[in-house]
Amino acid sequence: MGKPLIAASFNYRLGGSGFLPGTSVHKSRAANLGLHDQRMALRWIQENIAAFGGDASRVTVQGESAGAFSIGVHYLTNEEQDEEFFHAAIAESGGPVLGAPLTASDEQDVMYERILTDIGCLAMKDDLECLRSQDASKLNQAFARTSGSYVPILDADLVTGYTSVALREGRFSNRPLLIGTCYNEASSIIVASCFAANTSADFQDYVAGSWKGISSTTINGIVDEYVNKMSEEELKKSLGTIRQSPGPQYGSLFGNLAMYQGDIIFDATRRYTTEVWGQYRVPVYSYRFSVVPNGIDSEILGVPHFQEIPFAFRNFDGVGHEVNRLASASFKPRQKYLQVSNLMSRMWISFVNEHSPNGHDGKSLL
């Protein structure tokens, strides 16, 4: 293609190590360490990438799922923290609008106390220092046993407010963005939940259990849109290859539930983000990945979360995957996978080089 690039990857702290909740954590300025790890890595790239032949003024960051939501947070950091670590981003299945509610402060403290109790630090005068003195494996076990979500929290530092509000008010870094989702993002989430919805009441229970504090009026409105008002034709089109009810164990409203969950976490947030970028005339490109990969049940999962990754990375050999998603015993599907992967990877390379995915040699490979 004649569009060289240098790739750099990094690790950051996850779970309780990177996103420990609680008032003590907040007061000690130890909140959202995972996000700070990411910024430290990006700062290192700014300072050192030139030594590898790179251009520090043309850094594009790429992330999927939690990585994409992290990128979104960095787009929305306050002005004092807004160092120019990157100049464009690719956000796959995530973005500036977090797909889950931020954990309330009282819930954070409940989680924190459970961890302290589990690890034996509850009675200590300096409970946070007690945690710091523990073995990492012991801490990870305690984090895993503690129910709750380890996600970014409001910290008056990096995350100073709700991301949706920041977007609505135009408080984001005006940098190009390539953002997209898979066609059936939440099918695997619903399958993993083992929740079978057969009635509107079941659907209401699922929605209420997913979002603490949501009003009955909002719940009823959601059920009305996704169950009562949706025609069979509209549902079939929206689900792609997925069946509304692949089997009794999934419930008769499996497809409706998967569509709702995918919308609220991934697709609605993607659409809103692109609308805001467009409103402020910042370059933005959106995609929806609709190729059912090899080894995926098309009627149950369709094109679920994460499945675009081997295509974007041109992973023809399936390295790192138990099943090669680009393989097939038949020539025609295999050829289709290779063509999609070639085009997609070229578009990603084009975006990194030009901040537009359309410079992929000007020809369609499909």
From TrEMBL:
Belongs to the type-B carboxylesterase/lipase family. Keywords: Hydrolase. It comes from the Eukaryota. It comes from Alternaria alternata (Alternaria rot fungus). One of its GO terms (molecular function) is carboxylic ester hydrolase activity. Its EC number is 3.1.1.-. InterPro entries: AB_hydrolase_fold (IPR029058), AChE-related_enzymes (IPR050654), CarbesteraseB (IPR002018), Carboxylesterase_B_AS (IPR019826). Pathway: Mycotoxin biosynthesis. Residues 5-360 form the Carboxylesterase type B domain. The keyword Ligase does not apply. This is Carboxylic ester hydrolase. The keyword Acyltransferase does not apply.
